[in-house]
Amino acid sequence: MGRIVVTEFVSLDGVMEDPGGSENFSHGGWSFEFDRGDEGDRFKLDETLSSEALLLGRKTYEGFAEAWPSREGGFADKFNTMPKYVVSSTLDEPEWENSTVLKGDVAEEVAKLKEKLEGDIVVHGSAQLVQALVEQDLVDELRLMVFPVVLGSGKRLFGDRSDKKRLRLADSKTVGDGVTILTYERAGEEAEARG
Questions:
Q1: What is the Cα–Cα distance from 99 to 83, expressed in whole angstroms?
Q2: Interatomic CA distance for residues 83 and 98, integer angstroms
Q3: For the chain, what is the HEC assignment?
Q4: Quick check: 189 pLDDT over 60?
Q5: 8 A C-beta contact, residue 128 and residue 147
Q6: Residues 158, 127: contact at Cβ < 8 Å?
Q7: Which pLDDT belongs to residue 145?
Q8: CA distances, 169 to each of 84, 88, 103, 176, 195 (Å)
Q9: Which of 69, 76, 19, 85 is nearest to 49 (CA)?
């Protein structure tokens, strides 16, 4: 059975918008103001190489599909060749190699995907999709690369929830210029009951 793993670059105040600078956000490219160091770069490469598939929202998918096919190297090769699933009600014919559009109920489609695949099904960016996955308790692991900056505005990783969601800190480390990598797992039902 597959696991849904959400991986995000976020600011201290929870902003995830445009860390790479391609979306015309006023603070776009903010993650490049910090050096992740060799350990941070290794974390992202290992994460990608151990991924079974990508699960993306349409906007993130379109940005990735524009950027990655022309790139080379281990990271790009893995992104370009592994299966990609995009949740969209408007995209009909994805052009990026090995891409499949998931339409219909997100929870149902993702549950089917988890049954079909083994290993990590990794979600990058995709704010709306991530919020829906968190709401439906479909996220098995959350990896946050937290950058030491407060942006003050921008799209937040977590929106309003119908109820609290307990997580368990599985790992934490600081890399590069004070970038913290936090890995959370879904807390067990017994933790929810105590909550």
A1: 6
A2: 5
A3: CEEEEEEEEEECCCECCCCCCCCCCCCCCHHHHCCCHHHHHHHHHHHHHCEEEEEEEHHHHHHHHHHHHHCCCHHHHHHHHCCEEEECCCCCCCCCCCEEEECCCHHHHHHHHHHHCCEEEEEECCHHHHHHHHHCCCCCEEEEEEECCCCCCCCECCCCCCCCCCEEEEEEEEECCCEEEEEEEECCHHHHHHC
A4: no
A5: no
A6: no
A7: 98
A8: 28, 31, 33, 21, 15
A9: 76
**pLDDT score for 159:** 82
> Could you give the count of Cα atoms lying within 13 Å of 163 in the half-sphere of its Cβ?
6
Give the number of C-alpha atoms closer than 13 A to the C-alpha of residue 67, restricted to the C-beta side: 13
* Residue found under tokens 């590069």: 176
pLDDT tens-digit readout, 58-101 = 999 999 999 999 999 988 999 999 999 999 999 999 999 999 99
User: Tell me: the pLDDT tens digits for 11-42?
Assistant: 999 999 999 988 889 999 999 999 999 999 99
Q: At 143, give phi and psi (nearest 5°).
A: -115, 115
Q: Name the amino acid, one letter, at 49.
A: L
How buried is 195 (Cβ within 10 angstroms: 0-12 exposed, 13-18 middle, 19+ buried)? exposed
Q: Which two tokens stand for residue 49?
A: 């190489």
Helices 106-116/127-135 angle, 10° precision: 80
Residue type, 90: T
